[in-house]
Specification:
The protein is of the alpha/beta class. The chain is built from 13 helices and seven strands. It is 54% helix and 12% strand. A hairpin with a 5-residue loop joins strand 1 and strand 2.
């Protein structure tokens, strides 16, 4: 846990909360809402408690609570009021903010209550499309700005994965109506599987036969499927791996394997932008995201 970030800059708070740094400074000075530490060079450093408090403030402020009224609340009153507000509203923006709070506070109860409230208004597919995807995109931004704590990302990803798996299990007894088989896997050392998990759900929902192999799979582990006489569509997702200088080589290896078969490969994720798709001799298709692929399925 030693590598986990304990202090946040005002820019971090801006990235996470969506509130401009200038506004945060005003709230701080006028209402004494946050009390950051100062470095020797007078740079503000905010604790995890400061971050959690700010997210609670933003949630209430976005729901017509005046800052002056929020400033009079004790920390306990603020926490209770924001949690109650999160449970009551659970519309898209409020739900995303509640999931942020859940992530930074390691609060499984808040996550599940927010999710269950959404289920009264939306189907699981709508929740994933309207709430989870924007939320996950925001998590990506937090990674890029070095704001997100690794433990927080793992915590929230596992909770979302559980929801996808639960909804997929409900479909497992559905009759398979398609002759096509899909084998879903992630490249070796790739562990970001939420998009692939959801894609598996969508394929099962549409009556396809799927084999989900999951994270970090070396290509030679797919030999059984490569040699299979039945046509197979392989699907992989690339968020971090392979490394940029290895992506072209990875696709060339797959291209050689698939060239003499009727199998095909669909690859999605930001790493696919590095590859020249015109050089493939086999059936390989590239997509930027799960959403783009679903439009063609």
């Amino acid at each position: 846990m030693n590598n986990i970030k304990q202090n946040f800059t005002i820019k971090d708070l801006e990235n996470i909360s969506g509130i401009k740094a200038h506004t945060i400074r005003i709230w701080e000075k006028r209402y004494n809402l946050l009390a950051p530490k100062r470095t020797e060079t007078n740079i503000r450093l905010y604790s995890n408690d400061n971050l959690q408090k700010l997210l609670n403030i933003v949630l209430l402020n976005n729901n017509n609570f005046k800052i002056s009224k929020i400033a009079k609340m004790t920390d306990e009153e603020l926490l209770l009021q924001s949690r109650e507000m999160a449970f009551e509203t659970a519309t898209n923006d409020e739900a995303i903010n509640s999931f942020k709070l859940s992530m930074f506070q390691f609060d499984k109860i808040l996550f599940n209550n927010t999710y269950n409230k959404l289920l009264h208004k939306k189907t699981f597919r709508e929740i994933f499309k309207d709430v989870f995807i924007p939320f996950l995109n925001h998590i990506g931004l937090l990674w890029q700005t070095d704001t997100l704590l690794p433990a927080h990302e793992h915590f929230i990803s596992n909770l979302i994965a559980q929801k996808i798996q639960t909804n997929t299990e409900k479909l497992e007894y559905n009759i398979v109506t398609s002759n096509k088989s899909y084998v879903l896997f992630l490249p070796e050392n790739e562990i970001h599987e939420l998009g692939l998990l959801y894609l598996n759900y969508e394929l099962v929902l549409r009556g396809h036969h799927t084999i989900y192999l999951g994270q970090s799979l070396p290509l030679n582990n797919l030999d059984y499927f490569f040699k299979n006489k039945r046509d197979i569509c392989f699907i992989t997702s690339m968020t971090v791996m392979p490394y940029d200088d290895k992506v072209e080589e990875y696709f060339k290896e797959i291209d050689v394997i698939l060239e003499s078969t009727n199998h095909q490969l669909i690859a999605l994720g930001r790493k696919t932008k590095i590859v020249n798709k015109d050089s493939f001799k086999s059936k390989i298709s590239l997509y930027n995201s799960v959403s783009d692929l679903l439009k063609d399925l």
